[in-house]
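Consider a protein example.
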Amino acid sequence: MGKWESGMHYLLALSILIILHAAYSAAEWRARRKHEDPGEDEDSLPLDIVIQTLMGLSCAMISVVHIAGAFKEIRATVELAQKNWETTRNRPSFYIFNHRGKAFLHTMSLLPRDT
């Protein structure tokens, strides 16, 4: 991992902290507002909390896009055009090596063999 990727990880951590701080500030502002004027309900947050939230969100979006790496094509034909028919049907994720054969191998070795 190079400096660019680790910098993006730090930016993501910083943006999460910014968003958490903005959420805490908004909750504290609403509690203080409710305590000072119980009859009056104001729906809008102060501008500094809104700007802080938007900056944290934009930094998080930028860092996640850079951490994710190169995007793939949505169309499957672009990726499948480079493969032949034999490799298209090959799915290594469906290979199962942890199955009941191990348990049966032990019992089968105990049976007498007809030779």
In short: The chain has a mean pLDDT of 81. The chain has two domains: 3-73, 79-110.
